[in-house]
Amino acid sequence: MTSPSPNRRGFLQATAAGFAAASIPESAEAQRLGRQPINAGGIPLRPLGKTGQMVSLLCLGGHASTNPQKLSEKQSLRLIQRAVDEGITFLDNCWDYVRRFAA
To answer: What does the alpha-carbon distance between residue 48 and residue 67 come to, in Å, rounded to a whole number?
Structure first.
């Protein structure tokens, strides 16, 4: 957020990134003490609701990664592959994104 008057999206992105970054050192310490799992990419894991499935603390949003107004299909695929390669196992694939861009 380098703009003197940030927009709402920029503010929310910076805030979410800050919360995620702030939780990682604590999570690494918790892992060292044997209290919290971390995947091969070094990302802390959390249970997904009541499913028991462990997913990465960080999520790749479907709107950010598949918006055809911002990224080409090739760029989207590269971004998603990089996220998976880096250890992100939680992807937000809300159907509302499809409806919004299909119109």
So the answer is: 25
